[in-house]
Each structure stands twice: as structure tokens, then as C-alpha cells.
Design a protein that fits this description.
The complex is a heterodimer of chains A (about 160) and B (about 180). By secondary structure, chain A is an alpha/beta fold. Chain A has helices at about 1-25, 30, 65-80, 95-105, 115-125, 155-165; strands spanning about 35, 45, 55-60, 85-90, 110-115, 135-140, 145-150. A five-stranded mixed β-sheet of chain A has the order 5-4-3-6-7, with helices on both faces. Chain A has a two-stranded antiparallel sheet with strand order 1-2. The N and C termini of chain A lie far apart (about 40 Å). Chain B is mostly beta strands. Chain B has a domain at about 50-170: Immunoglobulin-like (Sandwich), CATH 2.60.40.1250. A five-stranded antiparallel β-sheet of chain B has the order 6-7-3-10-11, with no helix packed on it. The N and C termini of chain B lie far apart (about 40 Å). The chains are: A alpha/beta (about 160), B mainly beta (about 180). At the A-B interface, helix 1, helix 2, strand 1, helix 3 and helix 4 of A face helix 1 and strand 11 of B.
Chain lengths: ~160, ~180
């Protein structure tokens, strides 16, 4: 059933893909089109943060490098939220564990639960080996300005904020 | 103090989430084909998990299997995320894993990891003389480059010898060929 759904989505995607090329919709719109449940089960669309600098971070509790970089995101979110910076976590994990870890380190940005399906999504965004952490940054104009496998460095984040915010 | 139990598996998302992801994935895939995704693609050169963590096994005798992981340099497996089961029954095999290198993990506590190579003996619940049996290995590992792979499974089908005395051939896991339609 999923495979059929995938094919249907693929066809729909093909049509909209042609349309997108003609109307040159920014590439980040495909990221902003994602809707996933948050840790409390409420559906959240990334479109609600359109117009901000959106940092989408794929992570999991079983990924130590992911957990290590998240406090840096918390700090950046606190310092730059007013200027339009928005982190969004997508946990390739179950909701209980993601929620617990987010609470433990005081995560101050939304965390969505993607399960393994989120790995496929990240793969489509360039995460070909499907490892974590993987981060995609969509700028205020809806363009993807960074896709990165592996941890984000502080200097890199600073640069991004300086340039795109 | 560990706050989460290692070895737990990730639950798949519900049908709605799956459908949403499938649609989004297709959209993103096509956007990548049709649009220029410019900036800063991943610089890390990483092996796919089946190459980073090569799995092979053989039947040692009618009641014992031997499994091994060959871990590429710069990668490691978590000891407590390794488990083995028979397919399709799902019978979990009692694996005595050798001690690994202790690593302090602030979330999971003290964990043990394997590098290079790990060999495990797996007693079968009963004699499987002359049978063909499928062994599934579950594992999870990371790369020193700073990424981790999701929990992963690899299966091999083994010919168990009809009588004790001669081990069966070593069978290496071969990843399935890539397909557009899974």
C-alpha cells in the first residue's frame, strides 16, 4: 500500500516538478511542505515557519554526535529567535525517547517525529548514506542554503546566521 | 546513569505520517531533479552501512552458528545493539558477545563498542542438521567522522552440515540491488 502511495506521490511530484521548474518555486518549498507529528502527537507543518531562516535537523537519541550538537542549537535559538531563526528537529526515533531527551537538555524549538520514513526524506535531500545528524537550512526566501551530513560547527552556524538572517 | 535502554528499536511512524513522508520524499526527489540544489552539499565521504559493517556467518556444526562483523577503519558498532534471530520464526539466539571497548556516553551511560572485527558463536535451540536456515543480525554503529547509522539488519541463509565434523561455507551478506520501486 505504501509502495502504491509512493508511486502516486511520485507521479504527483513529477507533475508538480514540471510546474515548479516553470514557475521557479524555491527548492526549499519541498522541505516546507513536510508535515509531521510533534512529540505530543500534534501535526505540524514546516510551512508555518516560511519566511524565517529554518534549520531542519534530523537527529535521534541513538546518535551521539546528534545529541552533542543540539545544545548549540538551543543556544542559537534562544539568541536569534527574535531575528527570525527557527530550528526544527526531526527525530528518527520514537516520540517518548525524543521527548525525554529534548526535555533533558531543555530544547526550546519544535521536535517532530519522523521515524524511519524521515531517513528516506533526508535521503531525497542528499543524505545518500542515510546517517545522522543531517541538517538542511532553508533561507527566508525559501531556498536551500545548506545541506550537511555530520555535525554543524559553531563557526559555520555563526556564518549562516550572519549571512542569512 | 542511563536514561534510555539501549537495544530498543525505533517504532515506525503511523500510516498518516508514512504517507506524508512518502509524498514529501517524492516531491523533494523531483525537486532535486528539476531544480538546482546548490549550496554546501555534504563533504563527508562515508560508506553505506553494509560496507562499513560487513556481516558474514557460517554453520560450525549442526547446532552452532558463527557470525562475524568486519568493521571498516574509522567505524564502530555498539555491543548492546547487536542481536541475532532466526528467520522467519523470529527466534532470538542467545549470543555471548565478547567484551568491547568501554566508552562513556552521557545519555546511555557506559557502553561498549567494537572495532575491526567481532566474532560471535550462536548456539541453535535444536539441531538443524542438513537444513537451510536464515540468520538475521541486528546492529547499530557510527563513524568517527561524527555520524551514526540507524539500527540495521542483515540476513544470510546458511547451509547447516548434515553431520557434525565439517563447518558449512562462510556466507557474506550481500545488500539487495537498488530498485526504484521497493
Amino acid at each position: 500500500m505504501l509502495a502504491v502511495g509512493g508511486v502516486v506521490a511520485l507521479l504527483a511530484g513529477a507533475l508538480s516538478g514540471v510546474f515548479m521548474r516553470q514557475s521557479s518555486v524555491p527548492d526549499g518549498e519541498t522541505v516546507l511542505a513536510v508535515t509531521l507529528p510533534d512529540v505530543d502527537g500534534t501535526a505540524q507543518s514546516l510551512a508555518q515557519w516560511r519566511g524565517k531562516l529554518v534549520v531542519v535537523n534530523f537527529w535521534a537519541t541513538w546518535c551521539a554526535p546528534c545529541r552533542e550538537e543540539m545544545p548549540m542549537f538551543v543556544k542559537a535559538q534562544r539568541e536569534h529567535a527574535g531575528a527570525g531563526l527557527q530550528f526544527v528537529g526531526i527525530a528518527v526515533d520514537d516520540a517518548a525517547k525524543a521527548r525525554q531527551f529534548a526535555m533533558d537538555i531543555g530544547v526550546n524549538y519544535p521536535n517532530l517525529i519522523g521515524g524511519y520514513g524521515a531517513m528516506e526524506l533526508s535521503k531525497a535531500l542528499g543524505n545518500t548514506v542515510m546517517a545522522l545528524p543531517f541538517t538542511v537550512v532553508v533561507d527566508r526566501n525559501g531556498r536551500i542554503v545548506l545541506t550537511q551530513l555530520g555535525p554543524i560547527k559553531q563557526a559555520q552556524l555563526d556564518q549562516l546566521i550572519k549571512q542569512a538572517l | 546513569m542511563p536514561r534510555a535502554r539501549a537495544g530498543d528499536s525505533v517504532r515506525p511512524p503511523g500510516p498518516a505520517a508514512r504517507a506524508s513522508i512518502a509524498a514529501a520524499t517524492a516531491l523533494v526527489g523531483l525537486a532535486l531533479l528539476t531544480a538546482d540544489i546548490g549550496a554546501g552539499a555534504a563533504e563527508l565521504k562515508l560508506l553505506p552501512p553494509d560496507e562499513a559493517f560487513r556481516f558474514a556467518a557460517r554453520a560450525l556444526d549442526t547446532r552452532t552458528l558463527e557470525a562475524n562483523f568486519s568493521v571498516a577503519r574509522g567505524y564502530y558498532l555498539y555491543r548492546d545493539k547487536i542481536s541475532f534471530a532466526l528467520e522467519p520464526s523470529g527466534t532470538v539466539l542467545d549470543a555471548t558477545l565478547p567484551p568491547g571497548k568501554v566508552k562513556d556516553d552521557e545519555f546511555f551511560g557506559r557502553v561498549q563498542t567494537y572495532r575491526d572485527r567481532v566474532v560471535v558463536r550462536l548456539p541453535l535451540p535444536r539441531s538443524a542438521a542438513g537444513e537451510s536456515i536464515t540468520l538475521r543480525a541486528n546492529s547499530q554503529g557510527c563513524a568517527d567522522a561524527g555520524v551514526c547509522y540507524p539500527p540495521h539488519t542483515q540476513s544470510v541463509t546458511l547451509a547447516v552440515p548434515a553431520v557434525d565434523g565439517k563447518a558449512g561455507p562462510l556466507v557474506e551478506f550481500q545488500p539487495a540491488k537498488k530498485s526504484w520501486f521497493k
